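Course exercise 7: structure representation. Students receive a sequence record and must write out the corresponding structure in token form. The form below is the worked example handed out in class, using Hexosyltransferase (531 residues). Read each field label carefully; the graders check that inputs and outputs are placed in the correct fields and that the protein name is recorded exactly as given.

STUDENT ID: A-19
EXERCISE PROTEIN: Hexosyltransferase
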Amino acid sequence: MKFYISTTGIKRVTISTTNSSAKGSTVATRRITRRTFLPVVLLLSIVLPFLFVRIAFLVLESASACNSALDCIGWRLLGGSEASLLREELTRALMEAKEGHGTNDGDYRREGSTESFNVLVNEMTSNQQDIKTFAFRTKAMLSMMELKVQSAREQESVNWHLASHGVPKSLHCLCLKLAEEYAVNAMARSHLPPPEYVSRLTDPSFHHVVLLTDNVLAASVVISSTVQHSANPEKLVFHVVTDKKTYIPMNAWFAINPIKSAAVEVKGLHQYDWSHEVNVHVKEMLEIHRLILSHYNDNLRNANFQHDGVNRRSLEALTPSCLSLLNHLRIYIPELFPDLNKIVFLDEDVVVQHDMSSLWELDLNKKVVGAVVDSWCGDNCCPGKKYKDYLNFSYPIISSNFDHDRCVWLYGVNVFDLEAWRRVKITTNYHKWLKHNLNFGMELWQPGVHPPALLAFEGQVHPIDPSWHVGGLGYRPPQAHDIKMLSDAMVLHFSGPAKPWLDVGFPELRSLWNRHVNFSDKFIRKCRFLG
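STUDENT ANSWER:
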């Protein structure tokens, strides 16, 4: 055996033997195998347990998401993403929850939904439930939240309508102050109009305006805004009809705040001497309307606000116009003014912004009423809604006589030919429809003044220019693009619960009404009206 070492460094070691070469090769090979075996064993002892645990985890996790565990494992091992698989599994569970497959959805609804997402997550993690259960529980929770939001909106609508019934303290205060003034001030007790204007009350050459209201302040705004914008205020004659309790403060207001040039007549219902036949018909009409209101109020009390499909028609029974005696009496205008042939009718919640003289010169083409049908909002936009929104077309007596998709005409600013009214017997036709509604269980139309009027005046409406009437300002606040439209309108109508004199009125619109309130009056100041 020879051993060589170089003097310049150990660069090479040579071991040689005189024994056979076969034997030396066998020994060297054995030594190489023994050296590499131990690291390989150590590596496998580390990798194999980890690989086993990983495969087992994938099998358990993917049991409900894949057609087979081997598919999922293969997909993962070949480069699949755990996030992608989770996304697919969650998507599948959510689609099943949306479509309502299985009985889990109903079970979760019966058990009740979780109040918050955090509680839901805690329940899911603590109970170790699968992702499908999570999807169904989430759906149940969101569904319950939607029902609660819907219920809150419905209750808000009810409260909003109820708030419109209240008489503000300021308005009640004004009536009391004016009643006191009537008792102590002879001028406040003056008969209206003054003697020099009495002849104008039945003169057809004057412009007659009819207003039925028990709101002193609203009446003053209507009259003052009309006179302010009139080209010929001396031709105006206002006929204010009110109830017995409001007659004294109404008379006192216009007696101590006379309107220059124009004539104002204030008359209470107790001062009319109607025939027995008219009195019977009026009582009959009011009784039928009372039954209709009672029917829809019962529906409203029984409404379940926890579910969709609440009978929204019942809310109409809460609008002030449905409860107003004077509103219902507008169908008796020819009896209220037997000596007049043509009048302009204004609601108490309007503001006049331009001269109205042309309305008295309007040719109605032998029709009874001139009214806005289409509107400023565009072709067929129907600002006052369509017939189907007021009438019940499930009854043949309605569906066979009216077009459900036609726009209704609007109350609030109307020209009435009273002579034609009497000739075609509009009031008689109105009573006929009231009896039909009573016979059909009071389901032919929504409660209110407008629906039966649509039926009674059918075929007797002459459309007027849409700019004469911009309504619905008590239902919605104006948008930015509506500002020019409001300024151009002849008459603004605050139809809806949010009247400008109420706290629920829209602040952005109240200024359009307040500009015609006489805030310098001592009674207005004492009663602290909203400025």
